[in-house]
Design brief:
Metallo-beta-lactamase, Chain A, 7-stranded mixed β-sheet, 9 helices, 18 strands, 23% helix, globular, binds zinc ion
Length: 307
Protein backbone atom coordinates (compact mmCIF):
# COMPACT_ATOMS: atom_id res chain seq x y z
CA UNK A 1 0.00 0.00 0.00
CA UNK A 2 1.46 3.39 -0.95
CA UNK A 3 2.70 6.16 1.31
CA UNK A 4 3.61 8.93 -1.12
CA UNK A 5 4.36 12.63 -0.69
CA UNK A 6 3.76 14.55 -3.92
CA UNK A 7 5.04 18.11 -4.12
CA UNK A 8 2.86 20.41 -6.25
CA UNK A 9 4.30 23.70 -5.03
CA UNK A 10 7.64 24.43 -3.40
CA UNK A 11 8.11 28.20 -3.29
CA UNK A 12 7.27 30.69 -0.57
CA UNK A 13 5.11 33.79 -1.00
CA UNK A 14 5.94 34.59 -4.64
CA UNK A 15 5.20 31.87 -7.16
CA UNK A 16 7.45 31.71 -10.24
CA UNK A 17 7.13 29.94 -13.59
CA UNK A 18 9.06 26.99 -12.13
CA UNK A 19 7.75 26.92 -8.59
CA UNK A 20 4.22 27.38 -7.29
CA UNK A 21 3.49 28.32 -3.67
CA UNK A 22 2.95 25.63 -1.04
CA UNK A 23 0.84 22.66 -2.18
CA UNK A 24 1.29 18.96 -1.44
CA UNK A 25 -0.85 15.86 -1.86
CA UNK A 26 -0.25 12.71 0.18
CA UNK A 27 -1.42 9.32 -0.95
CA UNK A 28 -1.53 7.17 2.16
CA UNK A 29 -2.90 3.72 1.39
CA UNK A 30 -5.01 5.16 -1.47
CA UNK A 31 -6.56 7.86 0.73
CA UNK A 32 -5.58 11.36 -0.42
CA UNK A 33 -4.77 14.31 1.84
CA UNK A 34 -3.96 17.80 0.61
CA UNK A 35 -1.51 19.85 2.64
CA UNK A 36 -1.76 23.58 1.85
CA UNK A 37 -3.60 24.94 -1.14
CA UNK A 38 -1.54 27.78 -2.61
CA UNK A 39 -2.49 29.76 -5.68
CA UNK A 40 -2.61 27.59 -8.79
CA UNK A 41 -3.52 24.36 -6.98
CA UNK A 42 -6.03 23.36 -9.65
CA UNK A 43 -3.49 23.85 -12.43
CA UNK A 44 -0.94 21.70 -10.62
CA UNK A 45 -3.53 19.02 -9.89
CA UNK A 46 -4.36 18.81 -13.59
CA UNK A 47 -0.69 18.80 -14.56
CA UNK A 48 0.22 16.03 -12.15
CA UNK A 49 -3.01 14.07 -12.59
CA UNK A 50 -4.39 14.32 -9.08
CA UNK A 51 -8.06 13.32 -9.07
CA UNK A 52 -10.37 16.12 -7.86
CA UNK A 53 -12.85 13.56 -6.56
CA UNK A 54 -10.30 12.00 -4.22
CA UNK A 55 -9.53 15.14 -2.21
CA UNK A 56 -11.72 15.12 0.89
CA UNK A 57 -9.36 16.53 3.52
CA UNK A 58 -7.32 19.73 3.22
CA UNK A 59 -4.87 20.88 5.90
CA UNK A 60 -3.91 24.57 6.00
CA UNK A 61 -1.02 25.42 8.33
CA UNK A 62 -1.75 29.15 8.65
CA UNK A 63 -3.44 32.04 6.96
CA UNK A 64 -0.67 33.61 4.93
CA UNK A 65 -1.94 33.74 1.35
CA UNK A 66 0.72 31.49 -0.16
CA UNK A 67 -0.82 28.61 1.81
CA UNK A 68 -4.51 28.98 0.93
CA UNK A 69 -5.24 31.33 -1.98
CA UNK A 70 -5.88 28.32 -4.20
CA UNK A 71 -8.69 27.14 -1.97
CA UNK A 72 -11.36 29.51 -3.29
CA UNK A 73 -10.97 28.38 -6.89
CA UNK A 74 -10.81 24.75 -5.84
CA UNK A 75 -14.00 24.94 -3.74
CA UNK A 76 -15.77 26.60 -6.67
CA UNK A 77 -14.55 24.00 -9.18
CA UNK A 78 -15.59 21.13 -6.93
CA UNK A 79 -19.12 22.57 -7.10
CA UNK A 80 -19.00 23.03 -10.88
CA UNK A 81 -17.97 19.44 -11.50
CA UNK A 82 -20.87 18.15 -9.41
CA UNK A 83 -19.26 17.27 -6.11
CA UNK A 84 -21.77 15.92 -3.59
CA UNK A 85 -19.62 14.62 -0.75
CA UNK A 86 -18.31 16.67 2.18
CA UNK A 87 -15.00 18.50 2.10
CA UNK A 88 -13.12 18.75 5.40
CA UNK A 89 -10.80 21.69 6.00
CA UNK A 90 -8.44 21.84 8.98
CA UNK A 91 -7.25 25.38 9.63
CA UNK A 92 -7.49 28.52 11.74
CA UNK A 93 -11.19 29.34 12.19
CA UNK A 94 -10.83 32.71 10.42
CA UNK A 95 -10.64 30.81 7.14
CA UNK A 96 -14.28 29.83 7.52
CA UNK A 97 -15.26 33.52 7.67
CA UNK A 98 -13.31 34.25 4.49
CA UNK A 99 -14.93 31.35 2.66
CA UNK A 100 -18.42 32.22 3.93
CA UNK A 101 -17.93 35.74 2.52
CA UNK A 102 -17.36 34.38 -0.97
CA UNK A 103 -19.68 31.38 -1.26
CA UNK A 104 -23.44 31.34 -0.90
CA UNK A 105 -24.41 28.13 0.87
CA UNK A 106 -27.59 27.89 -1.22
CA UNK A 107 -25.54 27.59 -4.39
CA UNK A 108 -23.29 24.86 -3.06
CA UNK A 109 -24.16 21.22 -3.73
CA UNK A 110 -21.80 19.90 -1.07
CA UNK A 111 -20.82 20.80 2.48
CA UNK A 112 -17.54 22.33 3.59
CA UNK A 113 -16.85 21.22 7.14
CA UNK A 114 -14.31 23.20 9.17
CA UNK A 115 -12.09 21.83 11.90
CA UNK A 116 -10.39 24.51 13.98
CA UNK A 117 -6.74 23.83 14.76
CA UNK A 118 -5.28 24.06 18.25
CA UNK A 119 -2.34 26.48 18.17
CA UNK A 120 -1.23 25.97 21.77
CA UNK A 121 -0.55 22.24 21.93
CA UNK A 122 -0.35 19.10 19.79
CA UNK A 123 -3.69 17.50 19.02
CA UNK A 124 -5.04 14.52 17.08
CA UNK A 125 -7.18 15.98 14.30
CA UNK A 126 -7.98 12.92 12.19
CA UNK A 127 -8.08 9.21 12.77
CA UNK A 128 -9.17 6.16 10.84
CA UNK A 129 -8.28 2.53 11.28
CA UNK A 130 -4.84 2.79 9.73
CA UNK A 131 -3.76 6.41 10.19
CA UNK A 132 -3.50 9.18 12.78
CA UNK A 133 -2.98 12.83 11.84
CA UNK A 134 -1.80 15.30 14.46
CA UNK A 135 -1.33 19.04 14.39
CA UNK A 136 1.32 20.80 16.45
CA UNK A 137 2.26 24.47 16.94
CA UNK A 138 5.12 26.03 14.98
CA UNK A 139 6.94 29.31 15.51
CA UNK A 140 5.92 31.90 12.94
CA UNK A 141 4.64 35.49 12.75
CA UNK A 142 1.03 34.35 13.04
CA UNK A 143 -0.55 31.23 14.51
CA UNK A 144 0.76 28.24 12.57
CA UNK A 145 0.57 24.46 12.87
CA UNK A 146 2.62 21.64 11.44
CA UNK A 147 1.11 18.23 10.67
CA UNK A 148 2.22 14.71 11.47
CA UNK A 149 0.88 11.74 9.49
CA UNK A 150 1.61 8.42 11.15
CA UNK A 151 0.41 4.91 10.41
CA UNK A 152 -1.11 3.00 13.29
CA UNK A 153 0.50 0.00 14.94
CA UNK A 154 0.19 -2.90 12.59
CA UNK A 155 -0.80 -6.49 13.11
CA UNK A 156 1.47 -9.43 12.33
CA UNK A 157 1.58 -10.50 8.68
CA UNK A 158 0.27 -14.00 8.06
CA UNK A 159 2.35 -16.12 5.67
CA UNK A 160 0.03 -16.62 2.67
CA UNK A 161 0.99 -20.24 1.97
CA UNK A 162 0.02 -21.24 5.51
CA UNK A 163 -3.60 -20.20 4.92
CA UNK A 164 -3.86 -22.80 2.17
CA UNK A 165 -1.83 -25.47 3.92
CA UNK A 166 -4.01 -25.40 7.03
CA UNK A 167 -7.22 -24.13 5.35
CA UNK A 168 -7.43 -21.30 7.89
CA UNK A 169 -10.77 -19.46 8.11
CA UNK A 170 -11.04 -15.65 8.00
CA UNK A 171 -11.99 -15.62 11.69
CA UNK A 172 -8.84 -17.54 12.57
CA UNK A 173 -6.69 -15.34 10.31
CA UNK A 174 -7.71 -12.34 12.43
CA UNK A 175 -6.82 -14.25 15.63
CA UNK A 176 -3.45 -15.29 14.24
CA UNK A 177 -2.67 -11.72 13.14
CA UNK A 178 -3.31 -10.70 16.74
CA UNK A 179 -0.70 -13.16 17.95
CA UNK A 180 -2.68 -16.31 18.80
CA UNK A 181 -1.56 -19.85 17.98
CA UNK A 182 -3.68 -21.97 15.63
CA UNK A 183 -5.42 -25.25 16.34
CA UNK A 184 -5.84 -27.37 13.21
CA UNK A 185 -8.95 -29.48 12.48
CA UNK A 186 -7.09 -32.53 13.81
CA UNK A 187 -6.31 -30.68 17.05
CA UNK A 188 -2.62 -29.99 16.42
CA UNK A 189 -1.36 -26.65 17.76
CA UNK A 190 0.68 -24.57 15.33
CA UNK A 191 2.84 -21.96 16.98
CA UNK A 192 2.06 -18.35 15.94
CA UNK A 193 5.72 -17.82 15.06
CA UNK A 194 5.45 -20.51 12.34
CA UNK A 195 2.47 -18.78 10.74
CA UNK A 196 3.43 -15.11 10.73
CA UNK A 197 6.06 -12.57 9.83
CA UNK A 198 6.75 -9.42 11.88
CA UNK A 199 4.51 -6.42 11.16
CA UNK A 200 5.61 -3.60 8.91
CA UNK A 201 7.09 -0.49 10.51
CA UNK A 202 4.63 2.42 10.94
CA UNK A 203 5.48 4.92 8.22
CA UNK A 204 5.38 8.61 9.07
CA UNK A 205 5.64 12.06 7.53
CA UNK A 206 5.99 15.43 9.27
CA UNK A 207 5.22 18.75 7.59
CA UNK A 208 6.77 21.88 9.15
CA UNK A 209 6.08 25.15 7.36
CA UNK A 210 6.17 28.04 8.01
CA UNK A 211 8.43 28.19 11.01
CA UNK A 212 11.54 29.66 12.50
CA UNK A 213 14.03 27.36 14.21
CA UNK A 214 11.94 25.69 16.91
CA UNK A 215 13.29 22.86 19.05
CA UNK A 216 9.94 22.21 20.74
CA UNK A 217 8.84 20.24 17.69
CA UNK A 218 11.69 17.73 18.02
CA UNK A 219 9.94 15.24 20.36
CA UNK A 220 6.82 15.32 18.18
CA UNK A 221 8.57 14.62 14.88
CA UNK A 222 11.24 12.32 16.33
CA UNK A 223 12.27 9.40 14.04
CA UNK A 224 9.84 10.17 11.20
CA UNK A 225 10.66 8.67 7.82
CA UNK A 226 10.34 11.99 6.00
CA UNK A 227 10.51 15.47 7.47
CA UNK A 228 9.49 18.36 5.23
CA UNK A 229 10.94 21.48 6.84
CA UNK A 230 10.88 24.90 5.30
CA UNK A 231 14.18 26.52 4.36
CA UNK A 232 12.99 29.79 2.91
CA UNK A 233 16.55 31.16 3.03
CA UNK A 234 20.07 29.82 2.78
CA UNK A 235 22.13 30.27 5.90
CA UNK A 236 23.73 33.52 4.69
CA UNK A 237 20.35 35.11 5.38
CA UNK A 238 19.98 33.88 8.95
CA UNK A 239 19.14 37.33 10.22
CA UNK A 240 16.25 37.86 7.78
CA UNK A 241 15.03 34.36 8.58
CA UNK A 242 14.95 35.12 12.30
CA UNK A 243 13.21 38.41 11.70
CA UNK A 244 10.49 36.98 9.45
CA UNK A 245 9.79 33.77 11.37
CA UNK A 246 11.36 31.52 8.76
CA UNK A 247 14.18 28.96 8.68
CA UNK A 248 17.43 28.59 6.82
CA UNK A 249 18.96 25.44 5.33
CA UNK A 250 21.07 25.07 8.47
CA UNK A 251 18.02 25.42 10.74
CA UNK A 252 16.15 22.72 8.81
CA UNK A 253 19.14 20.36 8.81
CA UNK A 254 19.78 20.88 12.53
CA UNK A 255 16.17 20.01 13.36
CA UNK A 256 16.37 16.93 11.09
CA UNK A 257 19.53 15.78 12.83
CA UNK A 258 18.27 16.38 16.35
CA UNK A 259 14.97 14.65 15.56
CA UNK A 260 16.86 11.69 14.06
CA UNK A 261 14.66 11.59 10.96
CA UNK A 262 15.41 9.39 7.96
CA UNK A 263 15.10 11.97 5.16
CA UNK A 264 14.87 15.75 5.11
CA UNK A 265 12.99 17.57 2.36
CA UNK A 266 13.60 21.30 2.22
CA UNK A 267 11.09 23.62 0.54
CA UNK A 268 9.21 26.93 0.69
CA UNK A 269 12.10 28.66 -1.05
CA UNK A 270 12.26 32.41 -1.44
CA UNK A 271 11.74 33.51 -5.05
CA UNK A 272 15.14 35.23 -4.88
CA UNK A 273 16.89 31.87 -5.41
CA UNK A 274 17.36 30.63 -8.98
CA UNK A 275 18.82 27.34 -7.73
CA UNK A 276 18.84 25.55 -4.39
CA UNK A 277 22.37 24.21 -4.66
CA UNK A 278 23.65 26.39 -1.87
CA UNK A 279 20.82 25.32 0.43
CA UNK A 280 21.68 21.68 -0.19
CA UNK A 281 25.45 22.13 0.27
CA UNK A 282 24.94 23.92 3.57
CA UNK A 283 22.34 21.46 4.89
CA UNK A 284 24.31 18.34 3.91
CA UNK A 285 27.19 19.42 6.14
CA UNK A 286 24.83 18.82 9.05
CA UNK A 287 22.39 16.25 7.72
CA UNK A 288 23.48 14.18 4.73
CA UNK A 289 20.15 12.73 3.59
CA UNK A 290 18.72 16.07 2.47
CA UNK A 291 16.85 17.06 -0.70
CA UNK A 292 15.66 20.42 -1.96
CA UNK A 293 12.26 19.66 -3.48
CA UNK A 294 10.94 20.76 -6.87
CA UNK A 295 7.36 20.96 -8.09
CA UNK A 296 6.36 17.54 -9.37
CA UNK A 297 8.73 15.57 -7.10
CA UNK A 298 7.39 12.45 -5.50
CA UNK A 299 8.76 10.69 -2.43
CA UNK A 300 7.66 7.21 -1.54
CA UNK A 301 8.12 5.61 1.87
CA UNK A 302 8.59 1.88 1.36
CA UNK A 303 7.17 -0.77 3.62
CA UNK A 304 9.76 -2.10 6.03
CA UNK A 305 9.57 -5.06 8.35
CA UNK A 306 10.07 -4.11 12.02
CA UNK A 307 13.60 -5.05 13.15
ZN1 LIG B 1 4.56 30.71 3.49
ZN1 LIG C 1 3.77 32.31 6.55
Amino acid sequence: MPFIVKILGSNSALPTSKRFSSIQVLNIRERFFMVECGEGTQIQMRKYKISFAKINHIFISHLHGDHYYGLFGLISSFNLIGRKHDLHIYSHHDLQKKIDCIFDEKEMDYKVIFHNLNFSEPETIFENKFLTIKSFPLKHRIKTCGFLFIEKQKQLNIIKGKIQTYKISIKDIIRIKNGEDYKTQSGKIINNKDLTMPPYKNRSYAYCSDTGYYEKIIPIIKNVDILYHEATFDSDKQEIANKTGHSTSIDAATIAKKANVETLLMGHFSARYKTTEKHVLQAKKIFENTYAVNDGDEFQIQKQIVD
